[in-house]
């Protein structure tokens, strides 16, 4: 019997009951990867030996008795932007081809301490810049629902690995939507925790004031179990919040929303959103009302400027962060034949090492930060950011959580938007405000759009360090939807393009 269609919580129970060993569970997933990943291309690197060694260690620990994490022995897919000691970490870039970090990121340290089995590294848009995984230097990932479509981005590999049943758990990172948008278009669950809730130590920086790692899975509870493992204060990250992690697992299990006030953000929906997306979103709202929640409409007028401000702040920070790839400290080195100077080697390395989208962002960011323009661009964008934060603060005075569709559309075709950066950027119109304010955001599936039978994402936003609220609402909605459908959106019966 295979366990790949189970949830992580079910795998955990099967491990505890000794119905399966972690080694067997890991082998089942490695076999699945071998079977489907030539089509899906979710993984950039599969660490077969390392995963089996970690599984064996988890089995030994369990046999010895004593305290053990609920996720010990459960396999996971890791986005290739997080450092794992000795394992290639490319960030989807030629620049870091074959780079093996000499240390573990804090997320990886915590995963290892909990006995989670890391299967390998997942594909992503280069340096996490993109919404489709087409910007990976190693070729696109394909959406398991329809292999001609994108799995979202930048963390398309992690989301696709979950949807294709190659792993029950994954780690993503979210700077403007890279956990939530891939979750939405693959019918999976993804959470961007409060900024500072999960350590950024060892997370290759794109836009440091926005980047946040978070849990991805096929259910809200699995996401909560993983959240609990990776979250918490870390003195090695100066922006880490020194507070207790909210009890997200209890919140995910609670399954009731009686008396909760839920605000629908007027600006994140309506015109420009696919009809089937809006329809499924409305139906989900009705379910929440039927479960005792009160729904009110809320206006956040400054969200209109979020996308424009993001595309000043994120490229500005990227242009500064990516200056470290100078052909000397990390990654590849091009054209150093002993006859040319350091500047020429640097130029040749950055020319070959970075792809077009990364170059576009570096140019944008360098311009926005240049003296004479700094106040007009970067400075104004920071002011807009404050206004967005205030919109949220005001809204959270009267509601417990805010909700919206996660993305304007379902998964689009590979190639459809790759020549149109602005069309690509618009994917994140509903996810970016969360990052600008540093609050928590979750996406969970709320059905298939009637017009194309592709997954639709429901976004829940909660105030700083109140991440438990979105798990409470998400857990309730998920339970009601699964009982309405008679099965989860993703199950062994799901008609995926990968068999
Ligand atoms: N799609 C957005 C961008 O291209 C967000 C990416 C992310 O969250 N890493 O910047």
Characterization of this structure:
The chain is globular. Strands 1-3-2-4-6-5-10-11-9-7-8 form an eleven-stranded mixed β-sheet, with helices on both faces. The chain has 499 residues and is an alpha/beta fold. Helix 8 (248-254) runs parallel beside helix 16 (467-485). The model has no long low-confidence stretch (mean pLDDT 97). Helix content is 39%, strand content 12%. Strand 10 and strand 11 (455-462) form a beta hairpin. The chain has a single domain (8-303, 385-495), classed as Amidase signature (AS) enzymes. Bound molecules: glutamine. Glutamine binds at residues 128-131, 154, 174-178, 206, 314, 428.
Report the structural category.
Answer: alpha/beta
Return the domain count. Answer: 1
* CATH homologous superfamily heading: Amidase signature (AS) domain
Rg from Cα: 21 Å
Q: What average pLDDT do the residues reach?
A: 97
The fraction of residues assigned to DSSP E strands is 5-15%
Distance linking N and C termini = 16 Å
- Extract low-pLDDT stretches: none
What's this, in brief?
This protein is an alpha/beta fold and 499 residues long. Helix content is 39%, strand content 12%.
Keywords:
binds glutamine; alpha/beta; 11 strands; 16 helices; eleven-stranded mixed sheet; 499 residues; Amidase signature (AS) enzymes
Task: Furnish the topology, listing elements before pairings.
Layout: H1 8-16, H2 22-40, E1 43-46, H3 48-63, E2 75-79, H4 106-113, E3 117-122, H5 156-163, E4 169-173, H6 180-186, E5 189-192, E6 213-217, H7 220-230, H8 248-254, E7 261-265, H9 275-290, E8 294-298, H10 306-321, H11 342-353, H12 356-369, H13 375-398, E9 401-405, H14 421-425, H15 432-437, E10 440-448, E11 455-462, H16 467-485
Residues 128-131, 154, 174-178, 206, 314, 428 line the site of glutamine.
Protein name: glutaminyl-tRNA synthase (glutamine-hydrolyzing)
GO molecular function: ATP binding; glutaminyl-tRNA synthase (glutamine-hydrolyzing) activity
Pfam families: Amidase
């Amino acid at each position: 019997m295979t366990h790949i269609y189970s949830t992580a919580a079910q795998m955990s129970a099967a491990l505890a009951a000794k119905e399966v060993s972690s080694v067997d569970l890991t082998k089942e997933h490695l076999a699945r990867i071998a079977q489907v990943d030539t089509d899906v291309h979710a993984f950039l690197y599969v660490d077969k030996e390392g995963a089996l060694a970690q599984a064996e260690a988890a089995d030994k620990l369990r046999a010895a008795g004593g305290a053990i994490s609920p996720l010990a022995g459960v396999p996971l897919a890791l986005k290739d932007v997080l450092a794992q000691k000795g394992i290639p970490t490319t960030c989807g870039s030629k620049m870091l081809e074959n780079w093996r970090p000499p240390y573990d990121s804090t997320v990886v340290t915590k995963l290892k301490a909990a006995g989670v089995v890391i299967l390998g590294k997942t594909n992503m848009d280069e340096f996490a810049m993109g919404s489709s995984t087409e910007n990976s230097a190693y070729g696109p990932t394909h959406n398991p629902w329809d292999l001609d479509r994108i799995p979202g981005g930048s963390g398309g590999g992690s989301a696709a690995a979950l949807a294709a049943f190659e792993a029950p758990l994954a780690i993503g990172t979210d700077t403007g939507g890279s956990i939530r948008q891939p979750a939405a278009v693959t019918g999976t669950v993804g959470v961007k925790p409060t900024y500072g809730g999960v350590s950024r130590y060892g997370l290759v920086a794109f836009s440091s004031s926005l980047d946040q790692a978070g849990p991805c899975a096929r259910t809200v509870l699995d996401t909560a179990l993983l959240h609990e493992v990776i979250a918490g204060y870390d003195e090695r990250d100066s922006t880490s919040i020194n507070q207790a992690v909210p009890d997200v697992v209890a919140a995910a299990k609670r399954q009731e929303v009686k008396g909760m006030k839920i605000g629908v953000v007027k600006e994140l929906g309506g015109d420009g959103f696919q009809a089937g997306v809006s329809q499924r979103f409305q139906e989900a709202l009705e379910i929440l009302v039927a479960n005792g929640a009160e729904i009110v409409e809320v206006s956040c007028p400054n969200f209109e400027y979020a996308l424009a401000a993001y595309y000043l702040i994120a490229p500005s920070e990227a242009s500064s962060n990516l200056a470290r790839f100078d052909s000397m400290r990390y990654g590849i080195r091009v054209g150093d034949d002993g006859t040319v100077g350091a500047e020429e080697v640097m130029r040749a390395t950055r020319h070959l090492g970075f792809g077009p989208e990364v170059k576009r962002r570096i140019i944008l960011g360098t311009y926005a930060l240049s003296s004479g323009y700094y106040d007009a661009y970067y400075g104004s964008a920071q002011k807009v950011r404050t206004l967005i934060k205030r919109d949220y603060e005001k809204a959270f005075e009267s509601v417990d959580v805010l909700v919206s569709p996660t993305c304007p559309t379902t998964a689009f075709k590979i190639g459809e938007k790759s020549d149109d950066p602005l069309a690509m950027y618009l994917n994140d119109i509903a996810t970016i405000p969360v990052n600008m304010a540093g609050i928590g955001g979750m996406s969970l599936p709320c059905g298939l759009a009637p017009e194309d039978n592709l997954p639709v994402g429901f976004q829940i936003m909660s105030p700083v360090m109140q991440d438990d609220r979105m798990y409470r609402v998400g857990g309730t909605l998920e339970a009601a939807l699964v009982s309405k459908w008679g099965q989860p959106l993703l199950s062994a019966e799901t008609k995926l393009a990968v068999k």
